[in-house]
Amino acid sequence: MAQDVVSEAEVPAARTVGTLRRLSAGFGTEAQVFVVLAVLLLVFAVAYPSSFATAGNVVNVGRQAGILLVVAVAQMFALVVGGFDLSVAANMAFASTVSALAMTHHHGVVVSAALGVASGAVVGLVNGIAISGFGVSPFVVTLGMLTFLGGFANQLAGGASIAGLPPSFIEYWGSGSWGVIPSAVGIAAVVMVLAWLVLSRLRIGLYIFAVGGGREACRLAGIRVVGVEIAAYTMCGTLAALAGLMLSARVGIGQAGLGQGYDLLSIAAAVIGGVAIGGGTGRLSGVLLGVVFFSVLTTGLNIAAVTEFAQQMIIGVVLVATVLLARTGSLTQRLLPLVHLLTARRHRPGDPA
């Protein structure tokens, strides 16, 4: 009889716990991001049909998303290996300043772009050496690099914007198109393919995931952990610089303040797409969804005439919510035994109502 009573009490508790397990497992998945994105698209399309749901706006979102996608993929390398990079935005500005100065001194678009990307690779290399080689916190290193690059770029540019960039650079890297494809989208697509090859088909990519999932285990297995982490940060710096050139071409200038906000936005886009903050897991398809989500959100808010300060508040809330949702699964798992106990007590026969 007692066994029957316990079984009856366990039924609703088990149902509640099972529901919580399913809900907690769903947070952060690409499917849920896709659903939220679809709802966001529908809301803006219905509210502003003449301005949001247009071919011109689709192209605009594509250009915006292309730049953010390259930065988010850069950030993904740092996140997956178990760190992060707060200096990506400053790196973008630094690369844009270096390349713009080279162009205005008649070094040619190809050479100038190569100098800009190389400068970003050096920044990433220095970050990696300081973080992995010397064991300094990623927060301290990349925050310090952010401050240093801001001052260095301003010193190089004399505190002014660098205009007069070649039309071919602006056309090919920023505001132009590759046939029917916006140039920013084309560059981002190439970056996605290359990143997929590195992370999925090359040994260094597999090592990046492995080190992020268990640094000590990798060291014991004979993997050169320091070299892997330095490589990840170097790739991050290289792609951040590439994004800086894209943004510079889009706005038509090189500037020490270019790219502000891309640091945290790139982290948010990667995390909301399923890249783990602690490292070891992440998918490029999820990063793409996260980037499209934020690009659609900011474009819709601009069309809705939401002020820049209000947009920053909204994006800040979304960023915090993203991190909380990324941790919801582990938090829910800890609460499940308590929920099970409380639900069982509530449904136990003979208890007071």
Automatic annotation (TrEMBL):
<keyword id="KW-0472">Membrane</keyword>
<feature type="transmembrane region" description="Helical">
    <location>
        <begin position="177"/>
        <end position="199"/>
    </location>
</feature>
<dbReference type="InterPro" id="IPR001851">
    <property type="entry name" value="ABC_transp_permease"/>
</dbReference>
<feature type="transmembrane region" description="Helical">
    <location>
        <begin position="259"/>
        <end position="277"/>
    </location>
</feature>
<feature type="transmembrane region" description="Helical">
    <location>
        <begin position="284"/>
        <end position="303"/>
    </location>
</feature>
<protein>
    <submittedName>
        <fullName>ABC transporter permease</fullName>
    </submittedName>
</protein>
<dbReference type="Pfam" id="PF02653">
    <property type="entry name" value="BPD_transp_2"/>
</dbReference>
<dbReference type="GO" id="GO:0022857">
    <property type="term" value="F:transmembrane transporter activity"/>
</dbReference>
<keyword id="KW-1003">Cell membrane</keyword>
<keyword id="KW-0812">Transmembrane</keyword>
<feature type="transmembrane region" description="Helical">
    <location>
        <begin position="309"/>
        <end position="326"/>
    </location>
</feature>
<dbReference type="GO" id="GO:0005886">
    <property type="term" value="C:plasma membrane"/>
</dbReference>
<feature type="transmembrane region" description="Helical">
    <location>
        <begin position="230"/>
        <end position="253"/>
    </location>
</feature>
<keyword id="KW-1133">Transmembrane helix</keyword>
<feature type="transmembrane region" description="Helical">
    <location>
        <begin position="31"/>
        <end position="55"/>
    </location>
</feature>
<feature type="transmembrane region" description="Helical">
    <location>
        <begin position="67"/>
        <end position="89"/>
    </location>
</feature>
<feature type="transmembrane region" description="Helical">
    <location>
        <begin position="109"/>
        <end position="129"/>
    </location>
</feature>
<feature type="transmembrane region" description="Helical">
    <location>
        <begin position="136"/>
        <end position="157"/>
    </location>
</feature>
